[in-house]
Amino acid sequence: MPVKPCLLWILLLSSVRLFAQADTTTSDGLFQAARHAAFENKDYALAKRYAIKALALSPKYADIRVFLGRLYTWDKQPDSARACFDYVLNEQPDYEDAAIAYADLEFWSDRNEAALEKVTAGLRYHPASADLLLRKARILAALRRYEEAGNVVDTLLKRNQKNTEALALGNRIKDERSQNRIGISYDYVYFDKQFEDAWHLASIDYGRRTGIGTVIGRVNYANRFRENGVQFEVDAYPRISNTFYLYVNAGYSNNVGVFPRWRMGLSVYANLPKSFEAELGIRHLYFTTTTNIYTAYIGKYYSSFLFGARAYFVPSKTTKNSASYNLLGRYYFGGADDYIGLNIGTGISPDERYLTPQLNAAYSLKTYKVNVDFRHAFKLNIVTLGGSLINQEYMPDTRGNQIQAGIGYIRRF
């Protein structure tokens, strides 16, 4: 019975594959086998044996020696890795991949000054290298030299607006690039049915970069329910590591109803691989009773965009549990402070300051909303604009619309 053509092709390809896997008599074949062992099977010990055997055949094969150095790095053998990278760079000081690998080793080993030295040496030969510049920005951020890190990020984004990793890093450090910042904002909320009078919220804040992270003090003024109120708040963003940082918030007001008497928040943020970011947190509001709201967020930077999803969950012992869900998208047309954003969702969240008192309502509000944001930097000056359309069931079977418009200004110095 004749062999079918497709079966013949399968047999031929299998034979070629087996032959390629078995070809460990040349340095190129051994290099291929080492990469297969490392990336496909995660067998670093076997990969190292193949790489060492390849170097015995071709001692000057720089690609293999750099790869062996990376294997030692992944296998937590930093001294052996350094020996590989030093050998290559002594022979070829302009070898870009060796400089990148060496900088990665030192950065992952928490030797940031040594990492900066290696990446700076590489940039002398390759000043336009996006890979080296991105690593330099990360290292400078880890050293808390945020202004320098931000300048490197700006350079990267000017050359390639779609550099996702640079955009993500720029967002993480944007509020720490300057020692000080001041901000003012104003929000106006119009109701077509629920309330006769519009709501007004104005804020002024001052932030300063400290040894633990940025700390911001804020004074809020609001006119709601035909009453005036003032709230005092403090935000802090302590950094735990290159991966994790915190958001801590505390606020107090003596004008209960206009504001909650107490407001507190705590979140853990994570900067994840592949340009992902995540948050888990809790918000605490106390008017005359306590409301605790739990939140979770996941975001992904892709090209010049950020896509994210956030949920708020409010457990209740007396009424039905409630939740708020939000989907967001941003398009960055410059740096981390230049974007247009769209947010659609359901429910009211405690982070929407202009609507927070509605979380104190006796009736579980069914809310649908769409929000548009705009933010743009002019050197050290940042302008923000925002608008929302909110449709809310504020009483059983009774719905009304709210229109919110906001403007803000931030000055860094």
TrEMBL record:
Location of the YaiO beta-barrel domain: 179-352
Keyword Isomerase included in the entry's annotation: no
Signal peptide location: 1-22
Residues annotated as transmembrane: none
Organism superkingdom: Bacteria
Regions annotated as coiled coil: none
Record's keyword terms, sorted: Signal
Pfam families linked: TPR_19 (PF14559), YaiO (PF19413)
NCBIfam families linked to this entry: OMP_YaiO_dom
Stated name of the protein: YaiO family outer membrane beta-barrel protein
